Amino acid sequence: IPPDVNVHPRYVIGGMTNAPSPRGRDAFLTWLQTAPARDILRAHGFSVPNG
Fold it and tell me: I need a surface site. Which of 2, 23, 30, 36 has the fewest CB within 10 A?
């Protein structure tokens, strides 16, 4: 997922549960660890640890 895409929480959940393949899911979860992903999640009201 490109970091400049706005991610609605529903899509975040969907990405984790409906990824087209395990590799796709792993790539998504890896992206969720990045700073842009944390910023997007924070903007949507998620509590995201810094790290």
Answer: 2
One-letter-per-residue 3-state SS of 24-45: HHHHHHHHHCCHHHHHHHHHCC
| pTM of the predicted protein model | 0.45
When divided into structural domains, the chain yields a total of 1
List the domain range (segments joined by +) for residue 15. Answer: 9-43
CA-to-CA distance for 46 and 40, rounded, in angstroms? Answer: 9
Contact by Cβ (8 Å): 12, 48: no
Q: Tens of pLDDT along 15-48?
A: 555 555 667 667 777 888 888 888 888 888 887 7
